[in-house]
Specification:
The chain has 255 residues and is mostly helical. It contains 14 helices and no strands. Helix 3 packs antiparallel against helix 14 and helix 8 crosses helix 10. It is globular.
Length: 255
């Protein structure tokens, strides 16, 4: 089955950009980051409950191969077709190896260094503002998606948003300005529970090694929000990974 048809079947759209939830004008970096985030959700090792995970993962690999190749992307943008018989879409390609080549593993030290530089940076500010607009002021969603954040960071992140509203950089959303105390208490209670569960798990597993303990705490800090921790890692891996090489064009398959 052709790539665009498989996208329609598996992701309910044949638009390659819509599959990744990005705009047609997205930069190479934005495409790479979105590909990682979406593919991580259906990675066979991370989504064992999804019987279509492997097929989705393979289709996403082909999709990214098309959009990351300048000539292939230009053809798709102009004509809405994909070069189905090109080398980059060959059937015998191992898309797991391709994925790992694009996103090599990072170390705990990479995480610590990134977090140290990220917090308080202009990049963090822009990310928080973008999340505020994207989620229309829903603090639960903002906190669940913000990188390197925990409950303790909420006042600081909210301050960033308030300054942006004051400077008229963003619209005012009632979900943010009129959030109920009940919802705030529920969020604090949930964060306290997650922190306690992390501490209990660390004790149960007897993690004395500093690196292992750190990784466990980082993961548990995002407990019940694994996709957001993966999102955190995706930004890191995108920064540390190498660029892939160009591929050749082949025949065209129509949409």
């Amino acid at each position: 089955m052709a790539l665009l048809d498989r996208c329609q079947e598996l992701f309910k759209t044949s638009n390659l950009y819509e599959v990744l939830s990005i705009k047609k004008e997205a930069t190479d970096a934005e495409i790479r980051r979105s590909y990682y985030k979406v593919s991580l959700k259906v990675h066979p090792d991370r989504a064992p409950e999804d019987p279509l995970a492997t097929e989705k993962f393979q289709v996403l690999g082909k999709l990214y191969a098309v959009l990351s190749d300048k000539e292939q992307r230009a053809v798709y943008d102009e004509q809405g077709v994909v070069d189905e018989e090109s080398d980059i879409l060959r059937q015998d390609r191992c898309w797991e190896d391709y994925w790992r080549l694009l996103f090599p593993k990072i170390t705990v030290q990479d995480i610590l260094e990134f977090e140290k530089k990220y917090k308080g940076s202009d990049e963090e500010r822009q990310d928080v503002i973008q999340l505020y607009v994207q989620h229309q002021g829903d603090v639960d969603a903002i906190m669940a998606s913000a990188l390197c954040s925990s409950q303790e960071d909420e006042p600081r992140l909210c301050s960033i948003i308030q300054d942006a509203m004051k400077n008229k950089e963003v619209p005012t959303f009632p979900a943010f300005t009129q959030e109920s105390e009940k919802k705030k208490r529920a969020r604090r209670k949930r964060a306290d529970r997650e922190r306690q569960e992390a501490e209990e798990m660390q004790k149960e597993m007897g993690l004395d090694d500093q690196d292992d303990s750190l990784v466990m705490m980082l993961k548990q800090r995002q407990n019940s929000r694994e996709h957001n921790f993966n999102s955190f890692l995706s930004d890191l891996e995108a920064k540390y990974s190498k660029k892939s090489g160009k591929s050749q064009r082949g025949k065209r398959g129509k949409k």
